[in-house]
Amino acid sequence: MRLKSDSFIKYFIGCWLFIVAVCASSQPLTVGVIGRSSSDGSDITSYYEDVLRLALEKTRTSHGDFIIRQRPFEASVDRVRAMLQSASGVDVIWASATPERLQKMRYIDVNLLHDLNNYRALLIRRSDLNKFKKIETLEDLHRWSAGNGSNWTDTRVMQSNGFKVVTAVDFGLLMKMLTAKRFDFITRGLHEVGMDLAMFSAQDIAVVPNLLLKYSEPVSYGFFVRKEDEHLAQRLEKGVAIANDDGSLVELLERTELFNLGRNLLQKKPRIIEIDNSAALQ
Asked: Is it true that 23-114+220-256 and 116-218+263-281 share their CATH fold?
């Protein structure tokens, strides 16, 4: 009787563990992200979330349901990356692929911006438009000082190219400093300038229409997850591949209106000045 009792207990435990495993696997995947800072369509965070949702939707059949959980943006960019690495409510971030980030996190090569981030527009005071329209070379631009985020890759790029760069942690503060003439221009990716003008339309700012900077070395921009988050990494890689192959990723990029200004600047064939960004990639 003892042997039968032990066998029954083992059988019961085995069935219970199987049921627990099945129930756990049927739970939706929860993916934490830093949510958009506005709901009026002036924040490109919604685009990155849409790409994430697209990749997860493409793998719903193979990997199951999912929930994207937004956290409010209430910390610096460095703090957000630390939250990702420590699994503190953030599971995916989007950023340029620098050596430091590639070492600390796992990169999902999704080509989020299709080269828009490799061109930099100049955000200036509207009253300075005529001065900047006359710039022909990088040496001409050296006459003016730049303002950038203290943790931006572009700050290191500009400094390594001999520019005086005034920094601040908050972009809103940078905009106030620009209008207060603390510096003369801010370098912004073509994917960002549409958002900038939409969010700060009340301020006296403009984009130089006939001049762009271009990185000498292309920089990829995609998703990052924790190195040990193999399940999420593989799911996103598969979902992104499907979206790339069926054209839905490009379609999503092209219908994002906030990118139109940057695309139009490039299509007008402005003067392009190459800027060496190799130091920032080491």
From this structure: yes
Report domain extents, the chain.
Answer: 23-114+220-256, 116-218+263-281
Average pLDDT of adjacent 10-residue blocks, the chain of 282 residues:
50 45 66 74 85 97 95 77 92 92 94 93 96 95 95 92 94 94 97 93 91 95 96 97 95 94 94 93 78
Domain 23-114+220-256 has CATH 3.40.430.10: no
Helix, strand or coil for residue 67? strand
In degrees and rounded to multiples of 5, residue 88 shows phi and psi of -100, 50
Q: What is the CATH number of domain 116-218+263-281?
A: 3.40.190.10
Residue type, 125: R
Residue 39 is predicted with a pLDDT of: 53
Torsion of CA 237, 239, 244, 249, to 10 degrees: -120
- Can you give the pLDDT at residue 279? 84
Kindly state the tokens that stand for 137. 């070379």
Measured distance CA(124)–CA(179) in Å, rounded: 8
Largest Cα separation within the chain, whole Å, is 97
pLDDT at 17: 42
Neighbours of 64 (CB within 10 A): 14
- H-state helical runs in the chain: 2-25, 45-58, 60-63, 77-85, 99-104, 129-133, 138-141, 153-160, 171-179, 193-199, 230-246, 248-254, 260-267
Closest CA to 42 of 156, 189, 196: 196
d(CA 209, CA 142): 19
Identity of residue 69 = R
Dihedrals φ, ψ of 206, to 5°? Answer: -155, 165
Q: Kindly state the helix (H) or strand (E) to which residue 95 belongs, with its residue range.
A: strand 93-96
Q: Confirm if 55 and 240 have CB atoms less than 8 A apart.
A: yes
Contacts of 267 (CB under 8 A, 6+ apart): none
